[in-house]
Amino acid sequence: MLPREHYLKQTFQDGVNFPNGFEKGGLSDVQARLIRKHGVLINALSMDEVSDPTPEDQHILKVIASQSAPKSPIEQAWVKYLNIVKANQANAPAKTSKAKTSKAAKPANTEEDTAKASTGAAKAKANAEPKVAPAKKTAAAKTEVKKEAAKKAPAKKTVKTEAN
Known about the structure:
Layout: H1 4-8, H2 29-46, H3 55-64, H4 73-91, H5 111-127, H6 139-152
Helix pairs in contact: 2-4
């Protein structure tokens, strides 16, 4: 856990959902500036990684959880950001794959998504079948295989003949 000032020093970016910037993605200049300044803090708050949250920080968590109405400009901007992300993901064509697909598309930076991100990625990797070529046997492994085969095979009888 780090103090909230640590997160406020970092700039928030979302190149996945806003590849051309927040302004071109539907946020006003002021909202985009607020999202850039406070987005990292809000993500850290939603993952319970801030050591000294303020009452305002606690309120934004209630806003994200739809337990309270947004009051401050940053809360309003964050709600608009989340709504744009949800709308974009709902309109995006679903990708088909052999792996299990998620139940519903969610924004990349919501409280629920960030909490599941670390475990979800690990589970997906664990469940996916790796596409790895079989390893080549080393000389030592080949020798070991030959020894095992020799133990299992019946012994060959050698007949010595005396030469004249």
